[in-house]
Write a structure and sequence with these properties.
Structural class: alpha/beta
CATH architecture: Alpha-Beta Complex
Organism: Callorhinchus milii
Number of helices: 15
Radius of gyration: 24 Å
Pfam families: Glyco_transf_29 (PF00777)
GO biological process, one term: oligosaccharide metabolic process
Number of strands: 11
CATH superfamily: Glycosyl transferase family 29
Strand content: 5-15%
Helix content: 40-55%
Membrane topology: Single-pass type II membrane protein
CATH class: Alpha Beta
Shape: globular
Order of helices and strands: HEEHHHHHEEHEHEHEHHEHEHHEHE
Subcellular location: Golgi apparatus membrane
Length: about 375
């Protein structure tokens, strides 16, 4: 009887292991939940290999982040972010594809992110997104400035880095990680020379706010060479210009284009499509980000989420202190405060934190690696 009992037990164990093995290798098993988000089959193998499933508190945290707070307090957001850092992040392919489909359905960045000769005809009238009662006619001179085709082709890249300008990047040592991305978006001609260790040097697209031209370069009415020289660090990147947001911006933006052309710059000027801004603003309003004007960071992030397979964010930190409670500058290069009348950054940040916990994007803050002096 003892031998028979042992035989039954051993046979049962072998059958159980065989069943588990078959389930894990069936092609119709698409997803498996080990944490607070669903992951795909390849990620299952990675999780099983490391044996690091997220603790129960991560499940509760993800539920909490589905709610919209009535008040936006910096300390509460910082505390929430610190808690998310204790949970392992996994890219959620299913959620990512659904979110990308929603963006494509409303806004279609591949065709409409910029104004081109394909989506805008000679003689057409464009309506300014910030001044809907004003229009501009696309003359031959303007038409010749537009790219002949859409500048972006899918797939744009596997991994994109969107680099904001938050002071949280100071001493972050994130430069190497950022430069390893396939495509790097930057905002508002942020300086990178001498800051490569923290913010990297690679640039594939950089935005340029006309206010920078007015304040720093006298609207290019006098010497234009300093502007050209300051932009050479971005190499052959696209420079994204809001020519059709405000009527007062149009002349300055075209001066930028002509200056770059006159000095033989390698930068490639492209122009934000006002219809895309209207549509993407409405999209973010539908999910709780109801600002007067979206920040340039959120605009390029929106395009990246549609154009890229995976998106990591850096420098998106709207708080005056870091996770340790130490005061930091508003930007990694200066301490000029944001215009509160235009942007409500904590609301943007909270929505990004929600997308982070869903595995749609990865929100990076703090140090990417320790420097020798930190050890």
């Amino acid at each position: 009887m003892k031998l028979w009992s042992y035989f039954v037990i051993v046979t049962g164990i072998i059958f159980l292991f065989g069943l588990i093995f078959n389930l894990m290798n069936r092609t119709d098993v698409k997803t498996f939940s080990l944490s607070y988000i669903r992951v795909n089959k390849e990620q299952i193998r990675q999780i099983l290999a490391t044996q690091k499933a997220n603790p129960p508190e991560c499940v509760e945290l993800s539920k909490l982040l589905t709610l919209t707070p009535k008040r936006f307090k910096d300390d509460d957001f910082i505390d929430l972010f610190k808690k998310t850092q204790k949970c392992t992040w996994y890219r959620n392919s299913e959620a990512n594809q659904k979110f990308r489909a929603r963006l494509t359905n409303c806004c279609n960045a591949i065709q409409n992110f910029t104004v081109t000769q394909v989506n805008t005809a000679l003689g057409a009238n464009l309506t300014y997104d910030a001044q809907p009662k004003k229009q501009i006619t696309i003359t031959e001179d303007i038409f010749n400035l537009l790219p002949q085709t859409e500048p972006f082709k899918l797939p744009l890249s596997k991994l994109c880095a969107v680099v904001g300008n938050g002071g949280i990047l100071t001493n972050s040592s994130c430069g190497e990680e950022i430069d390893q991305a396939d495509f790097v978006f930057r905002c508002n001609l942020a300086p990178i020379v001498g800051r490569g260790d923290d913010v990297g040097l690679k640039t594939d697209l950089v935005t340029a706010n006309p206010s920078i031209m007015s304040i720093k370069y006298q609207s290019l009415n006098f010497r234009r060479k300093p502007f050209w020289e300051s932009t050479k660090v971005y190499g052959k990147a696209f420079i994204l210009l809001p020519a059709f947001s405000y009527l007062s911006n149009t002349g300055i933006v075209f001066k930028v284009s002509y200056t770059l052309e006159d000095f033989g710059s390698k930068l490639q000027p492209i122009y934000l499509n006002p219809s895309y801004i209207v549509n993407i603003t409405q999209f973010w309003k539908s999910v709780g980000v109801s600002e007067t004007r979206l920040s340039s960071g959120l605009i390029v992030l929106s395009a990246a989420l549609e154009l890229c397979d995976e998106v990591w964010l850096y420098g998106f930190w709207p708080f005056s202190k870091n996770m340790e409670g130490m005061k930091i500058f508003n930007h990694y290069y200066d301490n000029v405060p944001p215009k509160q009348s235009a942007h409500v950054m904590p609301r943007e940040f909270y929505r990004l934190l929600q997308l982070h916990t869903k595995g749609i994007l990865k929100l990076r803050a703090g140090k990417c690696k320790n420097k020798p002096t930190d050890i």
